[in-house]
Amino acid sequence: MTELATGQAFKARVDAPSLRNDSVGISGLAFVGAEARYEIVRSACHVESFTHFIELTSAIIPQPIALEQRTPPPSPPRSFVFRFGNSGRTAMAEILRQLAEEPIEDGVAHPAEQSVEKYLRTHGDQHVAQALKSLSASEAASLARLLGRAENVGARMREQVLAWGLASSSVELRDAAIQAAENWGDARLAPLLRAHLDDVPWLAKYAADVARDLEG
Amino acid sequence: MTVLARKVSRAKWEPRGEGDDAIRADAVTELRTTNDTLSFWHCESKERHHLERAVLALAAANDKPDKIDVVFLEEAAIDSKAIERRHTPGDTPVESLREHHVDLEKLDLTSLCSVATLIADACRGTAWHRVTRSDVLNLVAKAVSDGRVTLEALKPGMQEEVRKKLQR
Question: Which residues on chain B are in Cβ contact (under 8 Å) with A175?
């Protein structure tokens, strides 16, 4: 078992679509046979069930990761690779177009809110993280704020969006991720906020305030 | 000392990095003018209760109870830039606050840059305040309880959340 710290990155090739990367705090989405860059987004997570990372093609971390099978791999969701088809890409592109056309403003309804709800109803939330990671920090912050207003973002994806956002070097994106958590009102996100030590004082205070509010 | 308050998105005014004081172009998108005017709320002082009045005026007009960042500029600083201002009725459902609205007017690129610089300085100092979603809800719900604004005057999204808050 290898212990990894937040911010460490590595490349890997994945041999199965059954990766449950968010469960151990690793960002990135798996596509069979495709190499991707992964980043550790939750501090001190332990790699122990990742038999799917079979080939570390370019380890950026100093030592190789020893992979061991500690638990049986989850059964693969067969539709994983195929669900984010052309219609999903088109729908997401439309959301991003709406965001580019009109910046999202605190307290003010945005035309893309309906598009996001429709997207989530049609395509689910499992590709949201992939979409976020493909954007610039500023665009991702806008999308994260929009997601914070959506009802159909599942608990797992909320956690993933928050963890990924908090790990960003962009103040705007960290702020947006915290705001999304604040709007979701999900108490399960409070520990992530409590564990976050931001080097920007007002953002650190915001994270603490939101954690307090979520804990009720 | 009187101040003028305006809603901003604080993160957009953060410098890109250490030693880089430039104002990001994205921040300037927050200064969208109409008829060469920019909307502000007048506060008699920096005292908390005066600042809260501006926050209430802004929050009560919103579609939903998101957190709000408010920046406060000293009127004297505005005057020093020779920027004209005029009291105009504010767009808020809190009737008693409408008269506290001020437009900076006849703005041009130079004066808009001056405003942007004042806002950036305020954000990077202490002349700004973040009100969390929970505090926004408390503030608007209290205004409804005190009869300063009716629930029906709020926009649907805000109305629903405030109603829930009052029923708790």
Answer: 10-11
Size of chain A, expressed as the number of residues it contains: 216
**Residue A128: burial class (beta carbons within 10 Å; 0-12, 13-18, 19+):** buried
DSSP B72: E
Contact B59, B140 (CB under 8 A): yes
Please give the torsion angle defined by the CA atoms of residues A76, A95, B71 and B103, in that order, rounded to the nearest 10 degrees.
-170
Centre a 10 Å sphere on the Cβ of residue B46 and count the other Cβ atoms it contains. Answer: 16
Q: What is the pLDDT of residues A139-189, one digit of tens each?
A: 999 999 999 999 989 999 999 999 999 999 999 999 999 999 999 999 999
- ipTM for the predicted complex: 0.94
Give pTM, 2 decimals. 0.77
Residues A19-34 as b or e (16 or more Cβ within 10 Å = b): bebbebbbbbbbbeee
Length of chain B: 168
A59 Cα to chain B: minimum distance (Å): 29
A-chain residues near B65 (CB < 8 A): 107
**In whole angstroms, what is the distance from residue B82 CA to residue B75 CA?**
11
Whether B150 contacts B37, CB under 8 Å: no
What are the Cα distances from residue A188, in Å, to A81, A191, A197, A216?
28, 7, 18, 11
Residue (of A56, A49, A75, A42) closest to A13 by Cα position:
A56
Percent share of chain A, pLDDT over 70: 60
The four Cα atoms A122, A157, A205, B20 give a dihedral, to 10 degrees, of -80
What chain B residue is nearest to A212 in terms of C-alpha separation?
B134
- pLDDT value at residue A8: 53
A187 touches chain B (CB under 8 A): no
pLDDT (0 to 100) of residue B148: 97
Alpha-carbon distance B68 to nearest alpha carbon in chain A (angstroms): 6
pLDDT in tens, B108-121: 999 999 999 999 99
Q: For residue A177, what is the nearest residue in chain B, using CA coordinates? A: B11
Between B27 and B17, residue with greater pLDDT: B27
Which of A106-115, A129-138, B81-90, B141-150 shows the lowest per-residue confidence on average (mean pLDDT)?
A: A129-138
| Strand ranges across the sheet with B101-105 | B84-87, B101-105, B38-43, B3-8, B68-74, B128-131
